[in-house]
Amino acid sequence: MSYRIIEADIKVNIVLRMIKGESTLKLAKEYNIPPKTMYTWNKKAVDVLYKIFEHNPPGPKRKLLKNLLNCVELSQNIPEETRECPNCNSTKVIKNGSYKLNSGVVKQRLRCKICLFQAVVEKKTT
Ligand SMILES: [Zn+2]
Question: Whole-model pTM?
């Protein structure tokens, strides 16, 4: 397969739709572009947005990035060793900090290294 040149406005449109929460896999089919390519654009776009706003920094720096990315509550029964990204099916999912709720439940934040998808699972308490 050879590389196609994709117009900037198509890229922008795709990234905007991804940020709005449309399924990347669905968009990949619609435009016939590999999802991995689209994740790269998304990441680039979010990085640029972050740079635009970082010179005007009231509040925590990472907040914008977090708000732009999807964050879902996953089933609490996913075994840690077989964790897969629900967005791109990559297994490069890393732990990204945990926090405790007032109820005593501990939540583990997860982040996909490929598409930056974020998720939260309930941490097993043994
Ligand atoms: Zn992913």
Answer: 0.42
